[in-house]
Amino acid sequence: MTSRFQDLLEDETCRRFVLPALTEQAGWREDQVRRQYRINRGRIRATARRHRQERALIADYVLEYSDGLPIAVIEAKRSRRDPADGFEQVKRYAELLDVPFAYTTNGERILELDARTGRVNEIRGFPAPEELWARYREDRGLTDATQDALASAPLSSAVPNWDGTPKEPRYYQQVAINRTVQAIAHGTKRALLVLATGTGKTLVASQIVAKLWNANWPGGRRPRVLYLADRNILIDQPKDDYFKPMFGEAVHKLSGGEAKTGRFIYLGLYQSLDSGHDETSLYRQYAPDYFDLVIVDECHRGSATEGSQWRAILEHFSPAIQIGLTATPISTRDADTYQYFGDPIYEYSLAHGIEDGFLAPYRVRRVRLNVDMTGWRPAPGQRDLYDREIPDRLYGPKEYERVLAIVERTEEAARYLTEYLHRTNRMGKTIVFCASSDHAFRMVQALHNLNSDLSRRYDQKYVCRITAKDLDAGRERLDEFRQVDTEAPVIAVTSRMLSTGVDVPTCRNIVLFRVIKSMPEFKQIIGRGTRLFPEDEKFSFDIIDFVEATRLFNDPEFDGPPMRVVRDETDADGNISDTIDESEPGTDDETVAEPESEYAQEDGGSLPPIITDPAEVDDILASPRTFYVDGVSVTPWGSALYVSEPSSGGLRLIEYEQYVRDQVLKLDLEPHQLLGQWAQLKTRKELRERLKELNHITPEDLAEWAGRPDADTIDLLLYLAWELPLMSRSERARRVVTRHRDFLESFAPEARTVLDRVLHQYAARGPEELEVGALRSDAYTDMGTIMELAKRFGGTDRLNGAMDDLNTLIYEVS
């Protein structure tokens, strides 16, 4: 067959064939054809200090029957390629987008994959919208007009991004929304969505409501919706950021008292609905069939337990459709998310989010303190800071802060964190998780003292404690901390309040300084850092682990069903209390519980005995129950760096010097050959590309690990690979001036001043300043444009030659 087009490139195939075939021949509207549809962002790989991003998955075309409802995907190839070459690619896209129809074409031939039948056929033209919609409805079992209307209802575009553009659901959010609405159309009464922390459960929930709202509820009215949570921030943030912009005056927050009617979207705390714990409770003032839909946020807590007081609310509204949202479903002896809501309609894991580039990958810095490794035992008769005799036993991490607190242990952790922030970014927002409110205050005190310069600059708000005991002041600090446009607070120290439901996109560091036994809680805490914030170059985050909590990353259940339930306690206002998380009985304790402590008392004793004498009770109430000691020598025994590997879900230990040495030796170059390639602009670019392909080798990483930010990248490579002496950039620049004075003086004075400026910029900033393009930077504006600079040398060719010669002399073999 003679081709109509002569080896068209892929974009030409799209422009000259695919788009006309869809819009002019098949009858698809322009707004139904989504071009260059970005499915994901491309995995972000964390390096020792920085990150790099892989290519995104982009489909040439996605066909939407209605707004937010994709039903087919198309991959185009250049005209001389077989369309079968795109078959596996488009199958992958169709699976991710949850669409049953996929097409691949080269402009001459079209292959269609129909997931309904499992057949692959060559077709003459693309099907029309109504034809494909009819086949889609058949595939999804949408058999009547009501189901059709619910499934095809549009989304809301009322919620803005930070830049004012409409917030569009990502591909996995669309899948979750459409699957849920279609399940509702089929008569499903309970549904579960499992979406990793940071992947936008609230947007999914609000858009589910929007589709039901825009379709009009059966009976010709709007649906009545109840959104339930157990913490104020889990109610106020969805209300203000999503439901109010979408539904305006139809939104109402329940706050106790008498039942309000006349609205459609109600948001409320369990505590507010059940404040009376009897027949007068607010929820009982509403008829069981008053609400059409109940959405339960963080459904693994509170109402997850059978027979709990809060479960009674869900049972009261049992005629309503009930949707559970969580990142961490639980399945334990006394609480089972799956038993109540059923198997998930859709799951999107933390590993998948990192793989797609929607969540930030992490690095883990494990730091062990000497007293955590060896334990600590008091001297005979030793008394604590409150003059109480400390029971003679060997104490370890399981007892620290719960039974015994070593003042210097907290101070040493604060010192390590302060030094780390000095090396990285002192204004990088950081959350520190401590064992209790008291422990959090001592950490705040230590950090204030170590960062007094910034504490003064930011009116004592550089570091702050945010716990339930801080009441309104703590909530005010939390609101300030969450905002992306506020500098302070920078370090938020907490116990449990920030472990869930708090969106802090700019959080760069998570510090773990309390023992964590629960997998759900661990996932929630890690989720505080997984938000991306490209506007501030936040593409990854660091975890500083003093207590080996990150061992849970290596648990095979880390990205699967959790094994334990977190028993957070909340007060009547929806604020979390700072209770110590004790080990819970259950068949799964062995999986995630702490190993048996080697610090158990040798004579078989246990915790201090229960006090029964009234006088002793009065004494203990007048002073802390934890024993406090000071004067203990606490030092780090070392630290190790791990980076996340999304493909395996685990962590990889980086022995950095050996890693760099191995990777550089793979280049199969001798030191002088490597230096010679670096000296030439063209080959330096090629060498940089080869290094870029290797994980964890960036100029920033090399400089940090060698402790020499003043050294050239090539010298760092030579040092780490062959242990050659390190030379600073300033020293290389000085050698040119002293050894090659004749070269510099061969130029006219006005050209010589340009080369002097280049050498100065190189010494200060690095080898990027040795490229001709760098002459366009602000550092040269006082000298003129790049064309004016070239005139100083007698033309562009002579300028290029001078820069090439300068590069060769700078990297002259010593």
Automatic annotation (TrEMBL):
GO terms for molecular function: helicase activity. Residues 579-601 have a biased composition (Acidic residues). Pfam families: EcoEI_R_C, Helicase_C, HSDR_N_2, ResIII. Residues 567-609 are annotated as: Disordered. It comes from the Bacteria. Residues 182-347 form the Helicase ATP-binding domain. It comes from Actinoallomurus liliacearum. The lineage of its organism: Bacteria, Bacillati, Actinomycetota, Actinomycetes, Streptosporangiales. This is DEAD/DEAH box helicase family protein. Keywords: ATP-binding, Helicase, Hydrolase, Nucleotide-binding. InterPro entries: EcoEI_R_C_dom (IPR013670), Helicase/UvrB_N (IPR006935), Helicase_ATP-bd (IPR014001), Helicase_C-like (IPR001650), Helicase_Restrict-Modif_Enz (IPR050742), HSDR_N (IPR029464), P-loop_NTPase (IPR027417).
